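Before relying on records like the one below, remember that each one covers exactly one chain. Contacts with other chains, cofactors or solvent are not represented anywhere in the record.
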Amino acid sequence: VYMPFGWLPAGWWAVDETECTPTQMTQMATGFISANALMFRNDDQQVLSCSASMTAAEFRAEWFARQGASPGDLGMRPEGYALALEAATTADAVCMYAQALHELLIVRGIPLASLAARTVEAYAAMQDVLSTTDFES
């Protein structure tokens, strides 16, 4: 079983940059096991946790539109940057932390000073909140 780790470019097995020939690499890579991140949900109609009025499909369309791109267009923008799909997972992280802070500060009434001081109790409370979060991204 061949399990490559890390980020690999498209067609990585056909690049002649190792002691192996592209043919040998292709033979070796046949049937390899790989895992990768899923940047956007497949169930497009799922309502998102941080926007009760927006589905996953609507978020994706809005995200591309705000970059001046059509859905799926990851090309260079006129401003000189390329879109990065990691923005979707970054938005998820911001949403989860916002939800966690709301739970800790507003619902549980933990003082901001306790969180800022990184007390053992505050750390345990944050771990509890994150471990029990029911999140749709």
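DSSP finds five helices and two strands in the chain.
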